[in-house]
Amino acid sequence: MKKFTKEALNIAKKEIKIGKTLGEISNLIDFHPDIISKHLRKEGVIINSSNKDLSLNVNYFNNIDTENKAYFLGFITADGCIAKDGNRVHITINSKDDYILDILKKELSSSNIVRKYKVLDKRKNIYHDSSVFQFSNKKIKEDLEKHGVDCNKSFSFIFPLGLPLNLLNHFLRGLLDGDGSISSSRNELFLLSTKEFLEIINNYLFNNLAKISVIQKKKNVYKLNISNKNTCIEFLKYIYTDALIFLERKYKLYNKMKIKNIKTKKESFFSIPSFQDLKNRFL
After folding, report:
1. What is the distance between the alpha carbons of residues 134 and 194, in angstroms, rounded to a whole number?
2. CA quadruple 145, 148, 153, 155: dihedral sign
3. Do domains 67-153 and 166-282 have the same CATH topology?
4. What is the DSSP pairing of strand 126-136 with strand 180-183?
5. Are 158 and 145 within 8 A, CB to CB?
6. Which of 116, 142, 233, 262 has the most CB atoms in a 10 Å sphere around its CB?
7. What is the C-alpha to C-alpha distance for residues 55 and 106, in angstroms, rounded to an integer?
8. Rounded to two decimals, what is the model's pTM?
9. Residues with Cβ < 8 Å from 243, sequence gap 6 or more?
10. Domain 166-282 has CATH 3.40.50.1980
């Protein structure tokens, strides 16, 4: 990440004093709002948080009863950041996908703006564009926690509590779009989450078959890898059928995999069970 200069700090100090928000300053000096906030607080600058998002639909995540709510619950579970202190939630993604943040902004009736900033790819030593959407509300944070999504979700998430099982496919699509991958060339996919959640999905959707679905640890999270091409196609069919919201680039990979293997007649190990045991345990 590029160095936060004294010049950037002075601009931030000046702008915060005249009532600009961290988001507006972020657009001006091209640093993430969290970075700006960190340096301003070090200088003892008081950040005014009175600029409320008055149009925000604070009850949006109260009941997960639509496709879009289930999708965004999955997306935030995968790619969102929930503050430990305070009520802020933010989602940062590659700018080529930021239309999905515009949809979330519209769903929440938020007046906040999707912001762009530069991030350094240390492996390639180049900057790429990222976009962030953030909002702050106690009710929304509490509702996310009620559904099992909290500030420690990368380690503590078990299952989306209160999620109707007929919307599980939309939740999983949000999870895949937020922190998963599809490879049409290798006919495989993976999901990242906690070991507990992936074991549930592995047991109930993929029949816990070795070499077909394997859970591996990847740094501080776990990865469920699905390597059977027919199983991948059936699972993707499950999460994309009649879907109205998704990342287009991943949907195209699914279609590419499906077309490439259209004549394949090998067995699939994916199944949609009754979920009765799962329902008794979690809902």
Report:
1. 24
2. positive
3. yes
4. unpaired
5. no
6. 233
7. 11
8. 0.81
9. 67, 170, 173, 251
10. no
72: closest CA among 105, 95, 32, 94? 105
Which residue, chain included where needed, has tokens 């996310």? 144
Q: Name the percent of the chain lying above pLDDT 70.
A: 89
The residue assigned the tokens 């509590």 is 161
Residue type, 10: N
Report residue 153 as tokens. Answer: 């979700």
Q: What is the pLDDT of residues 158-187, one digit of tens each?
A: 889 889 888 999 999 999 999 999 998 998
Render 225-273 in DSSP notation, one character per residue. Answer: EE--HHHHHHHHHHHHTT-----HHHHHHHHHHHHHTTT--PPP-----
pLDDT of res. 261: 79
Helix 168-179 to helix 67-79 angle, to the nearest 10 degrees? 30
pLDDT value, residue 50: 45
Contact 178, 73 (CB under 8 A): no
Sequence-distant (≥ 6) Cβ neighbours of residue 232 within 8 angstroms:
182, 187, 188, 189, 226, 257
Domain 67-153 CATH assignment equals 3.40.630.10: no
Residues 74/153, Cβ–Cβ less than 8 Å: no
User: What is the CB neighbour count within 10 angstroms for residue 138?
Assistant: 10
Task: Convert the pLDDT of each residue in 69-93 to its tens digit.
Answer: 999 999 999 999 898 877 889 899 9
Sort strands 88-94 and 213-218 into parallel, antiparallel or unpaired.
unpaired
Domain spans of the chain, in order of start: 6-42, 67-153, 166-282
Enumerate residues 6+ apart whose C-beta is below 8 A from 273: 204, 205
Residues 251-279 as b or e (16 or more Cβ within 10 Å = b): bebbeebbeebeeeeeebbbeeeebeebe
List the alpha helices (DSSP H) in the chain. Answer: 6-17, 22-29, 33-42, 67-79, 99-107, 138-146, 153-156, 168-179, 195-205, 229-240, 248-260, 276-282
